[in-house]
Design brief:
single chain, five-stranded antiparallel beta sheet, alpha+beta
Amino acid sequence: MNPLNVYRVTGDLQYGNIFLNLEKKGPNYIRDVDVVKKEEWNIYPCQISKYTYDVDVIIFASSYFVVNEKTKSILEPYCKNIVDFLPVQLGERTYWFMKSYVFYDCTVREKMEGDKNTVPHFYWSYINRFAFDSEKIEKSPFIFRCLEKKTYILCTDQFKDLVEGAGIVGFKFEHLWNSETGGIWCEREPIFGPEGAKLNRELKENWGINKKKYGLLNHVLKQKVEILK
């Protein structure tokens, strides 16, 4: 039997960003897209970063991501009763916010490491090392979340292999745990200092590569999307 793996799934900053438009918030404005129920969802006005490219998956509202029609059609058959696909309009195109709503009890809390807070209640401010129950991970949903870090979207190789096999561009997979070797130590990405400067240079280099390879999203849209200043 092959070892089991758990990954955190995000969009990748090198492909751009979609933001809710704060200046056009209107009466139904929401700040946290994750709390909106499916039946209450609206087409909210959005802005994009000027470094947003024409790829399949784009970061949405900082912590989440949207997928295009092609990606939705590939993933949706595996996501019944675990994900809501909620529309996000960019120009004439419809993208889909993949709202994962299944919280799966699969961690081994006493083996986890990280920064804990107890005020006003216990919670993890950052988790450096995850620990999961192998038997539960073997039976885990296609995509899921855990109560210890509610904003994290998690998956196993089943999701990752499907995405990579289909050639979907824009997802980022952070390896968190392996059933044979345990949790992989994770650190916050540095913002300042030499390491932060190095990451910033690499990001700018990737923007240049992606512009040539995929093109800027606003260049291919007939109805342009407002650029975040």
